[in-house]
Amino acid sequence: MYKEKKIVIATHNPGKAEELALRLAPFISTVSLTDLGITHDVEETGTTFEENVLLKANYYTEASKMLTIADDGGLCIDALNGAPGVYSSRFAGKGARDEDKIAKVLEVMKHVPADKRTASFEVILALGIPGEQPKLYYGTLPGVITFEPAGSLVPGLPYKTIFYVPEFGKTLAELEDHRITYFGHRDQAIAKLVADLIHI
Question: Is residue 71 among the annotated active site residues?
Answer without folding.
Answer: no
